[in-house]
Structure formats: C-alpha cells, structure tokens
Amino acid sequence: MMRQPRLSFGSVRIVYAAACILLPLVGCGTDTDAASSNARADTVASMAATQSPAALTQAFFAAYIAELEANRDPLRTDAPLRRQVSAALLDSLQALDARGEVLDSDPFLLVQDWPDSWRTTVVAELDSAGSTADTIRIRVRLGGPDSTAAVRHVQLTAGDSSWKIRSVRSP
Predict the structure, then answer these.
(1) Could you read off the pLDDT of 64-91 as tens digits, one per residue?
(2) What's the pTM?
(3) Interatomic CA distance for residues 119 and 65, integer angstroms
(4) CA–centroid distance for 164 within its chain
C-alpha cells in the first residue's frame, strides 16, 4: 500500500502555484487506475508551454516516480511523460533496449531502488551556472534532509514548443 504523498517545498524559488499543480499529479493513497495516472501525466505534458523549467522538472520527477510505484513504464509509447524527454535521449534508451543491453540503474533516478522519501519529496530549482539560452540546468533534490536524499542535475534543451529533458547526472 502506497503512503499518501506529501510534497515538501523548502525552496523559496519554487512558487506556490507549483504546489497547487503537483498535488494532483502525484495522486493519493493506493490509486493505481491507469486512466488517472495518464491524466496526471497529461497534465505534466500540457504544462510544458506555460510553466517554468524547474516546475516542469519537479512535476516530471513526481509523476515519473508515481508511475514506477504503480508498476507502469513511464516512457511507454503512449505515455504523456514521454513528450517531456528529448528525442535524442529517447533514441539512446531505445538503442540500448534494441541491443538487449540492460541498464544498471533507472535512467532518470540513477539508482535501482529508491527510498520512500523520494516518493514524497521532490524539489527542483534552476542552476544558473549551468544554463545558456537554449539549455537549462535544473538541480533536483529527491528525498528529505536525511541520509537517503540525493541530488540530480537535469539538463533541459529547447524543444519544438517546450523544454525537454536531455540528460540526468549525479553531481
């Protein structure tokens, strides 16, 4: 049984509006209905043109983890979250799969297993030091202030009508 998610917005850089958008995205309780999950992921995809890159990245990771927790592939062909990932990254992941190569870890979380706190706490903020006009770097903190927290550097690139995730790295 999944615990009811709580989102933590400790950074003043994440606006209150993001909380209003994210709470419905991650769902509550034991919701495993695929239609409900797709609706949450569709919301992430539709935010692309109007939300800040940090808010989009935060929403993507919250919805991505919710999909994994529900034992669904977040990047399946019909998945709305797939639209938030660059074609180059998708092509790279598909090429690995076509060759039968198995990744040692999840390509976005960069681990095989993650602690429960990652499910409930996702905070993203702009990293201006790594950003340019057509590339933005976002610092994502997964988990709370304890020893299970992790930081990921997410690089977004300007896509057709929105920012797309191009890479995820550990610092």
Answers:
(1) 999 999 999 998 878 889 999 999 999 9
(2) 0.71
(3) 6
(4) 11
Rounded CA separation 66/160 (Å): 26
DSSP-assigned states of every residue in 89-147: HHHHHHHHHHTT---SS-TTT-SSS--HHHHH-EEEEE-GGG--SSEEEEEEEES-SST
> Which tokens hold the place of 18?
């993001």
Question: Distance between terminal CA atoms of the chain?
Answer: 32
Structure tokens at 68: 């994994």
- Measuring CA to CA, which residue among 112, 113, 114, 64 is closest to residue 85? 64
Report which secondary-structure segment, H or E, holds 80: none
DSSP letter assigned to residue 85 = B
Alpha carbon 168 to its chain centroid, in Å, reads: 10
In the numeric block, the tokens 């930081």 are attached to 151
pLDDT 10s digits, 147-161: 889 999 999 998 888
Q: How far apart are CA 75 and CA 145, in angstroms?
A: 29
Distance CA 126, CA 112 (A): 26
Write out the H or E segment, with its range, that includes residue 37.
helix 34-46
What's the CA gap between 43 and 60, in Å, rounded?
10
